[in-house]
Amino acid sequence: MLLLFFNGWGMDESLVKHLKIPKNTRLEVVNYPYKIQVPKEENIIPIGYSFGVYYLAKWITQAKLSFPKVIAINGTPEIIGSNGIFEKVFQTTYRELSKAILKKFFKNMGIDQTFRRPNKSIDELKAELKNLYNNYQPQPNVFTHALISENDRIISAKRQEKYFQAQNTKIKKINGGHFAFATLKNWRDIIDEF
Cβ–Cβ contacts within 10 Å for residue 179, how many? Predict the structure, then answer.
């Protein structure tokens, strides 16, 4: 089995390094700029986290793929706007991004001791935001399942729940903040959660 994980904004492999990988399973982490070929494995579970939810939906839609199980974690395919991060907040974050703002962002994520800060500069992080904003188009829902942290302060849990309920996506609420991986310790906690 392949777990194909589309990572969040500004993150790298270190985000999920502490999660235990089940036997006979391979993990492939897809970071910005989210370029990937269709893997050859037959049994694939795509998983998106935060902004990675949007980019995973975009990849599946553009490549005209389908999978029996596709999991969203703390994000929606409409990542900017009323079903994600309000546009004004997005633009303010981009415009004012600094080390101090980034530190506040990490705090709002609800990080714990397992979080490893990615080695990315403010300029790199701003470039990711700019690229998303300049090329943004809401994506259709491709998700069969959604894990939503009840105390998500980055992308409102209520907005996520409302969006996925309207899409008939199976929802599982979990404790914690946007950094869901403070609660989740094993990939089985994600793929078997429903």
Answer: 25
Residue 46, both tokens: 């795509």
Tens of pLDDT, residue by residue over 48-88, are 999 999 999 999 999 999 999 999 999 999 999 999 999 99
Q: What b/e string do you get for 51-73 counting C-beta neighbours within 10 Å, with b at 16 or more?
A: bbbbbbbbbbeeeeeeeeebbbb
DSSP-derived letter for residue 31 is -
Tens digit of each residue's pLDDT (9 = 90 or more) over 126-178: 999 999 999 999 999 999 999 999 999 999 999 999 999 999 999 999 999 99
The CA-based angle 170-155-180, given to 5 degrees, is: 65
131 contacts 124 by C-beta, under 8 angstroms: no
**Tokens representing 90?**
């997005």
What CATH number is given for 2-191 in this structure? 3.40.50.1820
CA distance 61 to 164: 17
Q: What percent of the chain has pLDDT over 70?
A: 99
Q: Are 108 and 178 in contact (CB under 8 A)?
A: yes
Domain ranges of the chain: 2-191
- The vertex-111 CA angle with 105 and 113, nearest 5°, equals 140
CA distance 145 to 63: 20
pTM over 0.85: yes
